[in-house]
Amino acid sequence: MKRLGIVCGVKAEEAALGPLLDDASVMVAVSGASPAKAEDLARDLVEQHGCTALLSFGVSGAITETLKPGDVALAKSIVMHDGERIAADRVFTPYLSEAAIWAGITLRHVDMAEAGDVIADVAAKKELGRRTGAHAVDMESGAVAHVARQTGVPFTALRTISDGVEHALPHAALGAIGPGGDIRVLTTVLRLMVRPQDLPAMMRLAAGSSKGFKSLRGCARHLVPALLGVV
């Protein structure tokens, strides 16, 4: 049976998949924004659960002006920490491109960068974009690409943008993701009480995240089903 293994960073990304969570040809794992855990989970999806393809799915941060909140990005490659590029498998591209046309979704084919931790600073975002030539960054796609190469299964990354390159992540938002991928609301609120000056940046982050997750739900509805049964 052909089965698509999907790795998400947080529970909200998993929830965006909606009815696909009940599809027998789909298996989903949530890493809690930990690259090491994402690698372990991706490996289990292939070796323990028989997944024949891997997808990194969720929201990402932009690291150049090319991408804005709400944009939908499909990986051409993942740029690893050492500068190596792992190409995403093009077998998925025609299926996703056709589905995007029918759904009226603009797919932006870009390189994505691997991150070992949250990149919160604007200058750090821009430097990563300049150094790698990538346009988006997340904490799962590099791990998925690495496992896919080791196990010989095809992979790609389908990500939507939640924060622009000019948007610094406020201190109150750091550490908001629990190890199971849940959002630590109380922790975030307490940090915001200590640093009320973060409120404008938190509101901007919330607005960008809303756009990103709206696009992510659209991807789950219109694009991800096009991958089922491909490999």
Description:
With 231 residues, the protein is an alpha/beta fold. The chain is 37% helix and 22% strand. Strands 3-7-6-4-8 form a five-stranded mixed barrel, surrounded by five helices. Helix 2 (35-47) runs parallel beside helix 5. It is globular, with a radius of gyration of 17 Å. The model has no long low-confidence stretch (mean pLDDT 91).
Overview features:
single chain; alpha/beta; 8 strands; 231 residues
What's a concise summary of this model?
Helix content is 37%, strand content 22%.
> Unreliable runs, pLDDT <50, ≥5 residues?
none
| N→C terminal distance | 10 Å
Give me the side-by-side strand order of the main sheet. 3-7-6-4-8
Morphology call? globular
Give the DSSP E fraction (strand runs of 2 or more residues). 15-25%
Mean pLDDT: 91
Gyration radius, to the nearest Å? 17 Å
How is the biggest beta sheet arranged?
Answer: 5 strands, mixed, barrel
What is the number of helices? 7
Helix % is 25-40%
Secondary-structure element sequence?
Answer: EHEHEEEHEHEHEHH
How many E strands? 8
- Output the structural class: alpha/beta
Question: Topology, pairings included?
Answer:
Elements: E1 4-8, H1 11-15, E2 26-30, H2 35-47, E3 53-62, E4 72-79, E5 85-87, H3 93-103, E6 107-114, H4 122-132, E7 136-138, H5 141-151, E8 155-163, H6 185-194, H7 199-222
Parallel strand pairs: 1-2, 1-3, 3-8, 4-6, 6-7
Antiparallel strand pairs: 3-7, 4-5, 4-8
